[in-house]
Amino acid sequence: MAKIVKLDVTNFKRISIVEINAKGESIIIGGRNAQGKSSVLDAIEALLRGGKAFPDMPVKTGEKKAVIRCELDDGIVIERGITEAGTASLKITTADGMSPQHPQAWLDRKLSAATCDPLAFIRAAPKAQAAELRRLTGVDTDSLDAERATVYAQRTQDGRQEREAGALLSRIPVPGEDVPDEPVSASAIAGELEAARLLNIQVGELNKEAEEHDNDAANAPTIALETLNYHQDQAIEYREQAQELLRQAQVLEDRAKGAEKQGKDEHDVMIESGKADAKIAAALRAQAEAITVPDIDEIKQRLDEVDAINNAVQQGIRYREAQDEAAKWADKVAAGTSRITEIDAERIEILSGADWPVEGLGIADGAVTFQEVPLSQASQAEQLRVGMALALAGKPEIPVALIRDGSHLDDESLALLADYAQEAGAQVWIERVGSHDAGAVVIEDGTVVETKNQNTGS
Fold first, then answer.
1. Which of 80, 235, 361, 397 lies 20 to 30 Å (CA to CA) from residue 219?
2. Model confidence pTM above 0.90
3. Cα 122 from Cα 114, distance rounded (Å)
4. Are 11 and 30 in contact (CB under 8 A)?
5. Strand, coil or helix: 203
6. Which helix H or strand E contains 442, and what residues bound it?
7. Is 388 helix (H, G, I), strand (E, B) or coil?
8. What is the pLDDT of residues 347-376, one digit of tens each?
């Protein structure tokens, strides 16, 4: 593994000219804000990674060309020029004086595929962290995670439906064993009831007609007697007139006799009519009595029994339908649970087969985990270890990690970074505000103004 032992930067971003002799695995670039600290780290990244790492304005304002050059401890020299017009050149000279035909491709093979900044990864959003880790490891469980989320949401909804169906089933009484599966037809009994009602009406009408004839028969003698008396009264009147009018006596006598005869005849006719009405009434009554009217109350009771049976049948149908509905949703929930189990197994298989930069690293629910907890909940030391491991993923031959905005790191964290870099045989460049860090290279107005003593800080 090769480390940078010397870095020369001219006219790059804020830098006028910087010469740094790098020693050890941890190099701190210090100074006030807007003095060129970030430009040093950007220069290293632009030198190693090429055009994809160039800033928008790589050449210092007013200059024509920027030059970045470094020497590695294995004798390799890398030099990149960038013109104001945006053209760039790259020259690599190996320890034996050879130059590769495709220098950037040769250089890319010696670099890590990961980001150069461990802290940038640690501070990134969980989704961005997961995306970067998937890019590095080739582990992609997005489709499985998305499917699991969809299946889980559907199972939750199906579970609500299952509980509602179960609650409905619990409110329906269990049907008895003797309840038929199909409703009983009441149309025949209803027909019997209607026929009985009609017969009852017919009997009533016959009895009413018989009663009318009974009344006529009962009143016939009275009417006949009244008629006879009327005509007898006429006869008396006529006789009185005959006595008074002798000359008309015979005529009146004849009229009297005729009146008496007419009265007797009408009396006899009325008597006979009354007897006939009595006979008709008796015949009608006999006809009514010959009709057997079914027991309407009994028929109604039978109808009530049929209604009760049919209500039980409908209740049984509702119960079985509720059973089927509850079973349907239970099957859906079981299917969802089964699919989630399958997805989890597939996911475990994918994750267990991955080549993780750090043991214990993983991806769960779209976020990076360490030792099975979200990376954000890991200790700072663990997060730094993960960040450094990712920055150096793939064991690059030029293991360089760049840490921007390192001012929030305490002494313990700085020491940990140095230890991790030494453990990995790597080199870490750290940008920090201020000039008090031991061994710091202090930048002011685009140039190096001092290098702190590693031991004394002065």
1. 235
2. no
3. 13
4. no
5. helix
6. strand 441-444
7. helix
8. 778 777 777 777 888 887 778 888 889 998
